[in-house]
Records
---
Amino acid sequence: MILELDCGNSFIKWRLLNASMASVGWGVVDNDEALVDVIRLRSVGLSQCRLVSVRSDDETAALVATLENTFAVTCSVVSPARELGGVTNGYEQFERLGLDRWVAMVGAYSLAQRACLVIDLGTAVTSDFVGADGQHLGGFICPGVPLMRTQLRTHTRRTRYDALEASLALKDVAPGRSTAEAVERGCVLMLQGFVSGQIAMAADLWQQDFDVFLTGGDAALVTSVAPSARVVPDLVFIGLAIACPTV
C-alpha cells in the first residue's frame, strides 16, 4: 500500500493506494495521532509514503519521523523546485510558492496539457494561471469561506449562530433575513464573484483555449458560476504522484 498525505495548516488529508494504484481508502484528520490511529485500524502494510506539506519544517519532520518509526516505511516529501512535470515555477523566489499549490498546478497541467486555471477552495482560496507551455504566470490568494466567517464572528460581536443555522442558510442565496443567512450567503457570493473574475481574466488572457480546474472542500459552492470547470478533488494527489513517483 502507498500512503499519500496532503498536510495543511488545519487538517491532514490522507489516501491509500493499492498495488494497482487504485484508491482503497481516504479521509481527513486534524492531528498526527489521529492519522496514525486511522492507518493502524486498517492494519495495512505500507510500502511507501509520500506527502506534501505546508507546515513548518519542524512539524513536517516530526510527522515524517512518527510515520517512519511506526510503520517502518520511508517517506518521500515534496520539495520546492523550479520545474516539475513540464510546469515552470513562476515565483521570483520559487521556494516561497506553497507546495500544495505547486503540486496542484502540476497535476492540472498533466491532465490538461494546455493552458489552465487552477482554483483551490479551502480555508484559503488560491488561483494559479499556467500557460500552454507550462509557464506558471502567477496567481492570487484570498480568504475562503471558513476564514471570512471566522473574521466576521471574531470582529463583530453580534455575529453569532450555530452550525445548523449555517447549514440551513446555504439552501438559498436570496438576501438573508437572519444573521446566519446574511453571513453565509454573503460569503458564498464573494467566493463565486472571485471565481467568476478569475475565469474572466483567464478568458481575456487565453480566449477559449484553456481548462478550469476546481479543487478543495468548497468547490461545490462555485460550480454554478463555473459550469464547464473540471472538479478534481484529488488534484493535489495527482501532482504528488508526479513529484514523488513510485519506487
---
Amino acid sequence: MRSLFVIGGARSGKSRYAQARAEATGLSPVFIATAQAFDEEMRNRIVRHQADRGVEWETVEAPLKLAEAIELHASPDRVLLVDCLTLWVTNLLIGDHDIPAAVRTLIETITVAQGTLILVSNEVGLGIVPENQLARRFRDEAGFLHQRVAACANEVQLLCAGLNLQFK
C-alpha cells in the first residue's frame, strides 16, 4: 500500500479502520488533523481521538494547508493518516478559498508523496439533495474531491457499520 482512501458515513468505523491499517505498517505514524475546534463538543471529540491514538503518534494540525503538511511530513519511514477530507473541504468553503485549486494541489501531492498515505473522508452524497445552496455546494465539492482521490489512490475501502468493502 502506498496510498489508501477510506470513505464511509458518519460513525461507520472509518477512523478506527484507518488507524489500525496505519499501525499495522510498523512505520512511524503521523496524524494530520484537519478539524478545527469551534465549540466544546468538537474540542471533546479531538481530545478523545488523540487519546485513542496513543503517544507514539505525532499530530500535525492542517485545517487548510493539507497538501503542504503532506509534502513536509511524508517520507518512506512514516505513515501519514489524514482525517478527514470533508472537514478540510468545510474549512476551505467557510474561508472562501479556491477549492478546485486546492484539490488540484492536493491530488498532485498525493501522487508524488514519499511513503505511505492514508486519507479518510465522509461520504455525503448518498442522502437527499440538501435544501440550501451552501449545503449543496459542500456536497458537490466533497463528491468531486472523492472522485479525484479515489482515482489516484492505490487502494479504496468503503466502511459501513464497521465493515469494509474494498473498491480498488
---
Amino acid sequence: MSKRAAAPKAQAGPADERWFDWLVYLIAAVIIVIVLYPLLFVVSASFSDPAKVLGGEVWLLPKGVTVDAYANILDNDKIWRGYANSILYTAVGTAVNIVMTLLAAYPLSRPDLPLRKGLMLIVTLTMFLSGGLIPIYLLVKDLGMVDTMWALIVPGAVSTYNLIVMRTYFQSSIPWELQEAAHMDGCSNWRLLASIILPLSKPILAVMVLFYAVGHWNSFFNALIYIRSEELYPLQLVLREILLISQSDAVDGLVGMEDKVLLAESIKYAVIIVSSLPVLIMYPFVQRHFVKGVMIGSIKG
C-alpha cells in the first residue's frame, strides 16, 4: 500500500501579512500618542487660562489663550542670566567631556596598548564603585572648586558608560589595518587621531555631544550642592527657585491667594517649555548621526 504524500504546510498569505502590518502600525501609533500627548498637553497648558487647566477643560488645544506665564518668566533678569550660565556650562562642560572621553577611549581601543585589559577593568569598576556624595563634596571643597563653574564640570569630566561606547565604536568601525598603514607611512599618533580617526568618528561624536550636552543642560543637583552665588545659578536652578517662590507666595497670606495659585500653575508648565526648548532645537542637527552612532557603538564588540 503506497504511502500518502505529506501535505505541505500552509504558508501565510498576503491577507495575513497585511493584518500583521496593520497590527504593527496600530502599536506604533499607540506608542506615539503615549509619548507625544504629555508634551502637547504641557505646551497647551502653558498657553491656556490656568483656571481652565485646573478645571480639567484643557485636553489637547489651548483654551483661553494667554502668555502671562511667559511674560512673568521672561521679565525676570535671573532667567536670562541663568540661560547664559547654562549655555556656558553646557558648552565648556561638553567640550571637556568630549576631549577627555576621546583621549581615554581611543588608546583603550588599540590592541597594542600595554595592560589594556587591566586598565579597562579598572575603568569599568568605577561604574559600580563610588566614594559617595560626602567624600566627593569634600574633595571638591579641598580643591577649591565650590561656588565655581568647575564644580559642575570636573567631577563628571568622563562618563564610564560613554567611554565604553566610544571605545567599542573605535574597535568595531575603524579597521586596525588602516591605522597600521598610516603608521607605516610615517603618521604620528596625534596626526592619526586628527586626520583619520576623528573624520571617521562623526556618528559617535554626535551621540556623545548630545548625551553630554543634555546631561549638563538638565543638571541641577550638582549646582544645588556646590553653587552658593545666585549670579552663578544655571537655568534649571533659577526656574526651580522661581517655581518654589511662586508656590510659597500662593500659600502665604489670604489676599490674592487664588490669583497666585493660578499663576503658579501656569508658570509650572511654562518653565518646562522654556527649559526644554534648547534641547529640542539642538536634536535635529545631530539626529542624522544619532541612531547610527548608538547602534554601532553599543552593539558591536
